[in-house]
Amino acid sequence: MPVHYAPPKIANAFEYIDSRKPLIAARLAGDAGAPAALNDASGELLESLADHRLDFAIISIDLVGSTRLATSLDADAYARLIGLLLTELSEVAPLFHGHVLKYTGDGLIAYIPGPSPNTQSDLAIDCALTMHGLVYRALNPAFEAAGLPAVDVRLGIDAGEAAVLVLGSPETKRHADLIGEVVSLACKVQGQAAPGEVWLGGVAVRHLHVQWRERLEPVATPADWPYADEHDKPYELHRVVR
Question: pLDDT tens across 44-73, in order?
Answer without folding.
Answer: 999 999 999 999 999 999 999 999 999 999
